[in-house]
Specification:
Layout (H helix, E strand, L loop, with lengths): L2 H11 L25 E7 L2 H9 L2 H6 L5 H23 L14 E6 L12 E7 L4 H17 L4 E6 L2 E8 L1 H4 L23 E8 L2 E5 L2 H11 L11 H10 L6 E5 L1 H10 L18 H8 L6 E9 L2 E9 L7 H6 L18 E5 L3 H15 L1 H19 L7 H4 L4 E9 L7 H5 L3 E7 L2 H13 L11 E3 L2 E7 L3 E2 L5 E2 L3 E7 L2 E5 L2 H9 L14 H7 L7 E5 L1 H14 L12 H4 L20 E7 L3 E9 L6
Antiparallel strand pairs: 1-2, 1-8, 2-3, 3-7, 4-5, 5-6, 6-7, 8-9, 9-10, 10-22, 11-12, 11-20, 12-13, 13-19, 14-15, 15-18, 16-17, 18-19, 20-21, 21-22
Helix pairs in contact: 1-4, 9-10, 10-12, 12-13
Length: about 625
């Protein structure tokens, strides 16, 4: 991220009009009553003051501001100020701190179709709404000074009156807009015209009462101006699909929420020019159309998607809803629509598991849907898959004439996938990178599935280094040598052994012998189950239970404890640091982190669950407030 990328964010957010309304105003309408009817995605914080109040007592912000975090916190903020804030303030001639308290009511960002048809260079519409409420005068004063600075610097400004509101218009070049407004990827291939330079974009802005309005075209701001001045043009709230989602998903005053009109967006994608109509398209790759891919994957059956987060004394709840009626589900949506089956932690999952997930996914149905998707997108792709399967069959049938990969592997798949992870054993980076993890797959005939997996893997990696099967408490543990890897210097890394066994109707996979053997011993009844972990049952009730086919859990305290150990042990050149962008690596001096026990009180657990109804697919994530903070 560069100053050029950050600059337009402030240019837009801090823009101001030349006219203002009276000092006494009516309440500003909510986002959906202002946004144009062709808005296909938006995100809003309805009340920034409420968000500030919730954030002030949130475990995350309390953790960040804890005195024990001060050395790490101060160095990070100093680097942030040095790298971005100070240059930005010098560039704009204002103090960023002058703007941090201005959002008092809603802050909304929306994107509209804006006349885009997929074939022209009309960009989507972009709109920002910011309600300063009782700080309206501060907004007026500060932004007027900013506008004067632009004018004094020679930036061209003009005014246009729309529905009685005077908008200031500033023209921004492609350099100003880099990384901000949607840009088309330049194309300059042999035989094609060079890419056209990006057109300058006009930014419209005004302040109505306490509301700042910013948009990238007159078509975007015109409906908003009409709504504010008594006009009757359609708004997003008039859309029947949005109205239904609002009624079901945005009740009880969410802290923030967002909505996506998938139907409108996918229709726009389907109108776009595709490779199948381009005579210059490469003949070495399949030719796809957006409409074909959307139809094949079933995404054209998705009408809308919404998310909402609610903060309460009990904790935070994030809900996601996919509006995909059962009658229209195919492909990916059909796979995601899990059956209503128990997804609680089985008794063999121990209470010291730090992560757990269970998905009641029908393996045979999923395989059938995947084949349909591949065939619909590229019939040749399905033929290639079948060729690989036939090759595996021919190879295995030389030793086992009855072998059939379709029957032995895919035909044995059940409807249960369980996975859990325990804390790393030891403090080495290798231990942190590969914590003990066990994956369990319900199958009808474990022996057939094991043989099928060994056959498939042997086509990609030699099994000469695989350890021979061994007995453990009446169970066979098989070793499968995975494909060897190489270090950066070219030296070979010893082949990893995947351990496979079966018990209780599950096929068990792990790279760690300890957790696999623990699972095979669990039938002795000595395992203290995760289901009895204090606080888990109560958290589960907040998401409506675990009977919808999907349930997951994370012990945030233990996972953060592991993260602290990993980061505090990682040096500046350590591979662990590669997870962070280069610009930020010298900002994050993890050696300054405190001992985790000093901040452990801010972490507890989280759970998630999902289900499918006739109307759509739902996901809920609940993070209860740590008991130590009550």
């Amino acid at each position: 991220m560069t100053i050029k990328i950050l600059r337009p964010l402030f240019l837009v957010a801090f823009s101001v009009s030349l006219t203002f309304a009276d000092s006494i105003h009516a309440a500003i309408p909510p986002a959906e009553n202002l946004l144009p009817a062709d808005t296909f995605v938006f995100f809003t914080i309805p009340d920034c003051n409420a968000l500030r109040a919730a954030s002030a007592v949130s475990p995350q912000l309390m953790f960040w501001n804890d005195p024990a975090m001060k050395p790490f916190h101060d160095k990070f903020m100093a680097k942030l100020t040095e790298k971005y804030i100070t240059p930005l303030e010098q560039d704009l001639g204002v103090k960023v701190a002058d703007f941090t308290d201005l959002p008092q009511g809603q802050v909304t960002v929306g994107v509209t179709i804006n006349g885009e048809n997929g074939h022209d260079d009309t960009p989507p519409g972009f709109v920002v709404l910011l309600d300063a409420k009782d700080k309206s005068d501060s907004l007026k004063t500060t932004l007027a000074a900013l506008t004067k600075k632009w004018s004094d610097a020679g930036r061209a400004l003009r005014t246009e009156t729309i529905h009685g509101l005077t908008f200031t218009v500033v023209t921004l070049s492609s350099n100003d807009l880099a990384g901000f407004l949607p840009q088309r990827t330049p194309v300059s291939d042999i035989g094609k015209d060079p890419a056209k330079p990006a057109k300058p974009v006009d930014i419209y802005f005004t302040q109505f009462q306490s509301l700042l309005i910013v948009g990238n075209s007159d078509k975007v701001v015109e409906p908003i101006a009409a709504h504010l001045t008594g006009g009757s043009v359609p708004a997003l709230a008039d859309d029947a699909m949005f109205a239904a989602d609002k009624l079901s998903q945005f009740r009880d005053a969410p802290t923030y929420y967002g909505w996506f009109n998938a139907k409108a967006f996918f229709n726009l994608l389907s109108q776009a020019t595709d490779d199948s109509s381009d005579p210059n398209a490469s003949s070495f790759a399949p030719k796809f159309s957006a409409a074909k891919v959307l139809g094949a994957t079933g995404l054209d059956g998705l009408k809308s998607a919404s998310l909402a987060l609610r903060e309460s004394h009990d904790g935070s709840m994030l809900t996601v809803h996919l509006n995909a009626p059962d009658s229209a589900r195919n492909g990916i949506l059909k796979i995601l629509a899990l059956p209503a089956r128990d997804a609680n932690p089985p008794a063999f999952v121990p209470d010291d598991a730090i992560k757990f997930s269970r998905i009641r996914l029908d393996g045979k149905q999923t395989w059938a849907e995947l084949q349909k998707i591949i065939a619909a997108i590229a019939p040749g792709g399905l033929a290639s898959v079948n060729s690989v399967i036939d090759l595996a069959n021919s190879s295995a049938q030389q030793k086992n004439p009855g072998f059939d990969l379709r029957n032995d592997l895919f035909g044995n798949l059940g409807d249960d996938l369980v996975s859990y992870q325990k804390s790393p054993v030891g403090d080495s980076l290798t231990a942190f990178a590969s914590p003990p993890t066990l994956t369990l797959l319900a199958v009808a005939n474990p022996d057939q599935v094991i043989q099928a997996i060994k056959t498939v893997v042997s086509m990609m990696a030699s099994q000469e280094t695989a350890q021979p099967p061994r007995d453990f408490l009446g169970h066979k543990i098989y070793s499968i040598a995975l494909r060897p890897q190489r270090n950066a210097d070219g030296t070979a890394i010893p082949s990893t052994q995947l351990l496979v066994s079966s018990s209780g109707g599950y096929l068990a996979f792990s790279l760690d012998p300890g957790i696999l053997e623990e699972y095979l011993r669990s039938a002795d009844g000595k395992t203290k189950p995760l289901s009895q972990l204090p606080g888990l049952a109560d958290a589960e009730q907040h998401i409506g239970g675990a009977s919808g086919g999907l349930f997951g859990y994370q012990n945030q305290r233990d996972t953060m404890r592991v993260s602290f150990k990993l980061l505090k042990n990682a040096g500046g050149s350590d591979p662990t640091m590669q997870m962070f962008p280069p610009t930020f690596r010298d900002w994050m001096d993890f050696t300054l982190l405190p001992d985790f026990d000093q901040v452990a009180k801010y972490f507890y657990l989280s759970v998630y669950g999902g289900n499918a109804t006739d109307d759509g697919i739902n996901l809920k994530v609940f993070t209860p407030r740590p008991p130590q903070l009550n």
